């Protein structure tokens, strides 16, 4: 994935947070997603564990029916797309 594609994925994550975050996510959940996207975009050593945190959050959001499974899956895919291919594998 190119840097441009990663930047676009980051933009989608930020748009999701701005659009759905205040109504559908608690502040700490928004922070977790934002921080994970940052870690992935900048290829931080903690990026893989940050992505796991988003995957777990997405599972809880879908399980509690706060988000649809499809929307939760799209969030994980967008956050993952912020990172280099090695992190997403």
Give a description of the structure.
- With 89 residues, the protein is mainly α.
- The chain has one domain.
- It is built from five helices and no strands.
- Helix 1 runs antiparallel to helix 4 and helix 2 runs antiparallel to helix 3.
Give a brief rundown of this model.
This protein is an all-alpha fold. It has 5 helices and no strands.
Give structural attributes.
mainly alpha; single chain
Could you name the ranges where pLDDT drops below 50 across 5 or more consecutive residues?
none
Into how many domains do the coordinates divide?
Answer: 1
The tally of beta strands, per DSSP, is: 0
Strand content: under 5%
Secondary structural class = mainly alpha
Assign a percent range to the helix content. Answer: over 70%
Task: Give the N-to-C terminal Cα separation.
Answer: 12 Å
Order of helices and strands: HHHHH
Number of helices: 5
**Compute the gyration radius: what is it?**
12 Å
Layout of SSEs?
Elements: H1 3-24, H2 27-41, H3 47-63, H4 69-81, H5 85-88
Helix pairs in contact: 1-2, 1-4, 2-3, 3-4
